[in-house]
Design a protein that fits this description.
alpha/beta; TIM Barrel; 2 domains; 9-stranded mixed sheet; 3-stranded antiparallel sheet; 17 helices; about 20% strand; binds S-adenosylmethionine; binds iron/sulfur cluster; iron-sulfur; Elp3/MiaA/NifB-like_rSAM; iron
């Protein structure tokens, strides 16, 4: 078993009860695995594909377009949302909405009208409550006024995820970010005023030439200003990016595995000192400010993927067979499909039961909460311990990488640091 080499970037996924109490009760029961499948909460992911510029490291489905047709995009999003809710039987009012997540691209570049249209559609076809988590991603360069943030809060956004990446000028320049450290700081402080306790920020570590000391200094500064949630990613070289070209041509060298491991360990220690819980490989929260949306993804909650390139994981309303859905990626093609067919969904694949088991294992081993035994049985019809390689499970428990209780199998902090390798070992 090797030590951690990389922090894998967050897998971004993406609900309506009749009342807030119904949502709280059904979510709690659901997490214990005792809710009937036709009453399970679900989530909604909305993809806004536009950015003002391209960051050197990013291979998300994003486009720089100076002439975005906002009205057409908004209409297409609402059209697809309505058709998909009906197609998957999610407009029947029996399944509460757990979370709505506006991701991108850069959703903070969209007009406030886009958020309002989507949320109005959801509340007319399902039922939004004050407890449904409604998050959006934002960039510092497009959220320059506190009034703009308040307008988003007044429309219904109740959690804000700000992409800061770094507070160092030279790193921001190298990443191709279109904001300065001071703009980022102002955006964060404004967002904390508007959504106290509900602001998350993204930071990236492991830049070319970054030392352990540089990273610790950046983290210490961050700990003084951070709200209650932090996503920390290791810079990953993705194909098709400018960073990939630079690394391939030898113009740039990223920190090696040992330095990355040291940075990761320093991160866990420093965040713990100020009360953060390391609840997933890349995610830290205090005061229980976990992301409901992402947590739902990790425990197998259905989510509807809306927008160009969005993907989803949804159950057939009658057979309960799970499907993975994939949307047309380019915005023009996706809008055309929505206009002509009512949806930009281009592929719908049945998820084999064995794939569901593997996904629950891989995502569960990345979380401190691990895998709920009842939940695993409910979703797959097989006991988790029956599914896993028994010798490997016993070995990992003896080695202090896994913990088994009557309710769950979870990685220890050491186990989570090697989550991907742990999953591979545990597979039958
Ligand atoms: C799709 S971005 C959306 C957020 C927003 N557009 C922004 O850039 O601030 C989500 C997050 O993924 C992370 N990310 C994207 N590509 C990455 C990479 N190659 N390596 C590490 N983190 C990455 C960044 O931290 C980014 O904030
Ligand atoms: S990191 Fe965010 S702002 Fe930068 S290109 Fe990717 S989606 Fe756009």
């Amino acid at each position: 078993m090797t030590r951690l080499r990389t922090l894998t970037p967050l897998l971004r996924p993406a609900s309506f009860p009749t009342s807030a109490k119904a949502l709280a009760t059904s979510t709690a029961l659901f997490n214990k695995g005792v809710v009937a499948p036709d009453k399970e909460p679900f989530s909604v992911y909305i993809h806004w594909p536009y950015c003002s510029s391209k960051c050197t490291y990013c291979n998300f489905n994003k486009y720089v377009d100076p002439n975005v047709d906002n009205e057409r995009m908004e209409r297409a999003l609402v059209t697809e949302l309505k058709s998909e809710l009906v197609h998957w039987g999610l407009d029947q009012g029996n399944r509460p909405i757990r979370s709505v997540y506006f991701g991108g691209g850069t959703p903070s570049l969209a007009r406030p009208r886009m958020f309002k249209l989507v949320l109005d559609t959801l509340s007319s076809m399902c039922a939004l409550t004050k407890d449904t988590e409604i998050s959006m991603e934002g960039n510092p360069s497009s959220t320059t006024s506190i009034e703009a943030l308040k307008a988003l809060r007044d429309i219904g956004i109740n959690r804000y995820s700000l992409g800061i990446q770094s507070f160092q000028e030279h790193i921001l320049t190298e990443l191709g970010r279109d904001h300065t450290p001071s703009t980022a700081l102002k955006s964060l402080l404004d967002a904390r005023t508007v959504w106290p306790g509900k602001v998350s920020m993204d930071l990236i570590m492991g830049h070319a030439g970054q030392t352990l000391d540089d990273w610790i200094k950046e983290l210490r500064f961050t700990m003084d200003i951070v709200d209650d949630h932090l996503s920390l990613y290791q810079l990953t070289v993705e194909p098709g990016t400018a960073l990939h070209t630079d690394v391939k041509q030898g113009k740039m060298t990223l920190p090696d595995g040992d330095l990355s491991t040291d940075m990761y360990e320093a991160t866990i220690q420093l965040t713990r000192e100020v009360g953060f819980e390391h609840y997933e490989v890349s995610n830290f929260a205090r005061n229980k400010a976990y992301s409901m949306h992402n947590s739902g993804h990790w425990i197998g909650i259905d989510y509807l993927g809306i927008g160009p390139g969005a993907h989803g994981r949804v159950s057939h309303p009658h057979t309960r067979q799970k499907f993975r859905t994939f949307n047309v990626r380019d915005p023009a093609g996706w809008m055309r499909e929505c206009e002509e067919q009512g949806t930009g969904r281009r592929k719908t694949d049945a998820i084999e039961l064995e794939d569901s088991k593997r996904e629950l294992l891989v995502l569960g081993m990345r979380t401190r909460r691990g895998i709920d035994l009842d939940r695993f049985y409910q979703l797959t019809g097989q006991g988790l311990l029956e599914f896993l390689n028994k010798d490997a499970t016993a070995w990992c428990i003896d080695a202090g990488l896994l913990q088994l209780s009557a309710a769950s199998l979870s990685p220890t902090e050491r186990g989570m640091a090697v989550a991907d390798e742990l999953s591979v070992r545990l597979l039958p």
